[in-house]
Write a sequence for this structure.
């Protein structure tokens, strides 16, 4: 304790206390205050930037999720569209086929009926020609029979030969 | 630990410089050790004793050649407030006399220096007379306002701190990230704030950080300054450590809140009979033990470090007879290198401990009661 007291100098103590007070005051005023404020500001701005980055990241994730959803939806829609188109195509082909068949059948039927009509008219025509021919022959036969028996016979024969050619 | 190792590496240059400076002194002294009155054990002991105390002049080393002593150093101003008012002169006026023989006449008063202290002779006295305990009987002590070695050290240190940290503060005005030396200082500032002030004080840390930083860097830089071969021993002065401790004491006494004082004086949750006893113990701790331990811990650590370091360096001289000069020099070099490294660590550690404990004491005083 004596040794300690011997080491203690009151003059130095007072001088140092004054100097140290001055130093604390000056350091606070010119160094610590601006330094601490600057550091705090910087930390806050860094924190702010980090938060903003985090937010942006989340937003990006949301956007990406949205995008994926959209893509999925679009894909599904395309799928359905394609399916529908395929169905329509098949139906169209089917329809066209049916229609064509019906048309063809109709045409065939028409043709057949036309042919039938033609045939009928031809037969009728033939019948009437045969009738008039027969009448003509009969007339000529009658005529020649009336004039010359031989000639009438020759004529009938010729006429008959002609008729078979027709 | 990272900070400490970083510190050690960054200061290895200083270490190298200081050791070579010491070694030079050794060599010079070692050359004429025959009949040399300086390199005796008593002289070395005296030198060490002298070094750890404050002094009125800046004494680097002494050597003996051509029959006379030479002192290397430079004088510092002596400013005294005595019976005849202010007197100022350079300490060289004493001619390195420390036994009260050299009388300096200034401002109508006669001053002598005796064991590092300046006395003013009573009017009419022309010589100091001593009592049996070797205390002067016909002299008084004037108020000593001199720029002593420690005061010079503090001024230098304050200037350095203002320059460095003021520069750092200026850098922040221009850009958010400092460059150059500021980059070294910034992590230290952050370290004190985040590792010492914040965890120990709590949410009110900002108010006290300025004081804690000043104390931390003051102690650390002055500890390191003390390791340089210039002979500074600022934090090894009890007056200085006591002053620092009293600052902490005043701060935590003033900022103590009701919660703190109620725990000091009338501890809740303890049987009533025990409360006065606890109050005495708590008050003794707060008023005496805490500041006393703060002051003495720092003073004793730094002074001991200086004495051990200088003693180990002195081995190079005192052991020359037992060992070869080369052997003693190597031994002293290795030992002092080792202790120097430890002292570098201690320099940081003591600054840390002082600041940490100050923060802790302040934190205890401003702590808010927990709400259950």
């Amino acid at each position: 304790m004596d040794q300690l007291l011997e080491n203690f100098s009151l003059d130095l103590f007072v001088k140092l206390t004054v100097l140290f007070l001055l130093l604390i005051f000056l350091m606070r005023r010119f160094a610590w205050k601006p330094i601490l404020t600057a550091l705090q500001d910087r930390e806050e701005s860094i924190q702010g930037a980090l938060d903003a980055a985090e937010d942006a990241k989340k937003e990006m994730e949301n956007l990406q999720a949205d995008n994926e959803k959209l893509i999925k939806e679009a894909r599904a829609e395309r799928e359905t569209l394609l399916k529908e188109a395929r169905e329509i195509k098949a139906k169209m082909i089917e329809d066209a086929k049916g229609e064509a068949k019906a048309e063809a059948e109709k045409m065939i039927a028409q043709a057949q009926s036309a042919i039938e009509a033609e045939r009928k008219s031809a037969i009728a025509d033939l019948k009437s020609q045969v009738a008039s021919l027969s009448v003509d022959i009969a007339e000529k036969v009658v005529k020649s029979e009336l004039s010359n028996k031989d000639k009438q016979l020759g004529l009938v024969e010729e006429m008959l030969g002609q008729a078979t050619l027709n | 630990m990272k900070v400490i190792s970083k510190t050690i590496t960054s200061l290895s240059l200083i270490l190298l410089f200081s050791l070579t400076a010491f070694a030079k002194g050794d060599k010079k002294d070692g050359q004429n050790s025959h009949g040399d009155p300086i390199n005796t054990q008593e002289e070395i002991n005296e030198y060490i004793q002298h070094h750890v105390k404050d002094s009125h002049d800046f004494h680097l080393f002494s050597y003996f050649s051509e029959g006379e002593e030479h002192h290397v150093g430079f004088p510092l101003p002596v400013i005294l407030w005595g019976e005849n008012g202010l007197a100022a002169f350079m300490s060289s006026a004493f001619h390195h006399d420390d036994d009260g023989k050299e009388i300096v006449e200034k401002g109508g008063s006669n001053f002598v220096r005796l064991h590092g202290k300046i006395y003013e002779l009573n009017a009419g006295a022309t010589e100091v007379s001593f009592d049996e305990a070797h205390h002067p009987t016909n002299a008084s002590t004037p108020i000593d306002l001199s720029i002593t070695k420690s005061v010079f050290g503090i001024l230098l240190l304050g200037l350095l701190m203002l320059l460095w940290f003021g520069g750092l503060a200026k850098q922040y005005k221009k850009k958010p990230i400092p460059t150059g030396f500021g980059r070294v200082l910034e992590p230290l500032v952050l370290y004190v704030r985040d590792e010492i002030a914040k965890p120990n004080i709590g949410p009110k840390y900002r108010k006290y950080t300025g004081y804690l930083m000043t104390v931390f860097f003051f102690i650390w830089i002055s500890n390191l300054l003390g390791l340089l071969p210039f002979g500074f021993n600022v934090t090894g002065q009890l007056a200085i450590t006591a002053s620092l401790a009293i600052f902490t004491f005043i701060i935590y006494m003033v900022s103590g809140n009701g919660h703190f004082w109620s725990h000091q004086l009338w501890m809740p949750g303890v049987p009533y009979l025990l409360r006065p006893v606890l109050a005495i113990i708590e008050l003794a701790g707060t008023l005496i033990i805490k500041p006393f331990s703060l002051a003495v811990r720092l003073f004793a650590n730094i002074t001991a470090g200086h004495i051990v370091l200088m003693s180990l360096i002195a081995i190079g001289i005192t052991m020359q007879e037992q060992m070869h000069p080369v052997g003693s020099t190597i031994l002293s070099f290795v030992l002092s290198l080792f202790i120097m490294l430890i002292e570098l660590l201690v320099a940081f550690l003591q600054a840390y401990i002082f600041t940490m404990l100050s923060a802790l004491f302040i934190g205890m005083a401003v702590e808010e009661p927990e709400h259950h």
Remarks:
- Chain B has two domains: 77-144, 149-366.
